[in-house]
Amino acid sequence: MKRLPIRLRLTLAFALVMAVVLTAIGLFGYLRFRSDLDRTINQGLSTRAENLAAALSQAGGATGTRGLLPQEEEGFAQVLTPRGRVLASTPTVGGASLLAGPQLATAMGDELIVDIPPVRRLEEPARLLATPARVDGRGLLVVVGTAVDDRDDSLSSLRSILLVGGPVALLLASLACFGVATRALRPVDQMRRRAAEISANEPGVRLPVPQSRDEVARLGETLNEMLERLEEAFRRERTFVSDASHELRTPLAILKTELELAMRGSRSPEELAAAIRSASEETERLARLADDLLVVARADQGPLPVQLALVNVGDLLEGMRGRFADRCAAQGRAIAVEAPRDLEIRADSLRLEQAVANLVENALSHGAGAIGLTASRTEGGAEIHVTDEGDGFPEGFVGSAFERFTRADPARARGGSGLGLAIVAAVADAHGGGAHAANRAGGGADVWIDLPAAGAGGRDPT
């Protein structure tokens, strides 16, 4: 059953329900029609019995009442004594009593209605009604009856109509249901055929959506929205792979060149040491790039996993200052921390250190002058700023600063991978916060992250 097309399953289900409904309605109508016919026959017999009883009373007895009995072709009557002796009878039923035994006793007590088989010249089944009557103080039994062939013919005609019309009505209703289901599901079939033709090499192709505002139209709209999201994901993935390949190509080429030069026998020890140092730097750069790519790939699958715990922001920034103090000194630059000593937030300390370290690396690589690490309380959380005194961000770059593989100077062949700020944004997002960048009014860049008191994207340590 599950392998059948939906339109056929709908038609079969409809046909089954319709068959039950038509059978129930037909049976109810047939029984109601038969009951109405029986009630009409019984009322007619009752009226005839009353009229005959009244005629007997007026005639003064049963002896002179033969002319009072009905002479209809399909009607008959008898007048019986309580013991069943026939006092008067119509010719169609002869002189034999139509009632005997228990029926006589029942009829003398109350009105009796029974169906009888054909008798004498009455060749059709009949129905009779027997009712007691008092004539001149004498108890008699008045019996009247009529053939029921007309009723049976009417019921037979009705049965024929139901047996023929019911299946015809069921067939027509089922065909109509199949047509409606086919028409309703035609847009789904069109969407299925279009979906089978869509490939990753044909961006922008969408499923046809019917003009109706029904469930099928909403399904098409939802699927088209899904296609848009998938295309965006594919685009980001292709861009990621292309940019990652580009970023890996440069350090690998440099590393290969340095190793090839180091293997030449004519190199002096100093040149050999320089080649090895350069190769070591490129290896470290490759390792950092691999780590950054892993973080970005995880971020694409959803918020980065974080383990929340209480973190003293001032202590964390002091640790960053100590970590970069030597590099800043080597460049002749100062690094300072300004943060409340009691400022604490719930965060993943390792992820937060990674984000702040990337901000400091960015200030060291692209900024100038002193580097400032500042933190301040906000309503329900904190902000961590990293500033420098360089030229700041180029015009128009701030809006895309946190996108992956973006650089303020695209012409650089060596340097950052363009993933540092993207990782900062991913860490902030994992904590339920955000990353921001701006140029300072007095010169230099200001990059900061805001974090809520409890990271909305993280989970408490277990």
Model description:
The chain is α+β, with helices and mostly antiparallel strands and about 450 residues long. The chain has 3 domains: about 5-150, 2-Layer Sandwich (Beta-Lactamase); about 215-295, Helix Hairpins (Orthogonal Bundle), CATH 1.10.287; about 305-450, Heat Shock Protein 90 (2-Layer Sandwich), CATH 3.30.565. It contains 8 helices and 12 strands. The chain has a 5-stranded antiparallel β-sheet with strand order 2-1-5-4-3, with helices on both faces. A hairpin with a 2-residue loop joins β4 and β5. α7 (about 350-365) runs antiparallel to α8 (about 420-430). The radius of gyration is 51 Å and the shape is rod-shaped. It starts with 5 loop residues before the first helix and ends in a 10-residue tail after the last strand. The relative contact order is 0.07. The model is unreliable at about 410-415 and about 455-460 (pLDDT under 50).
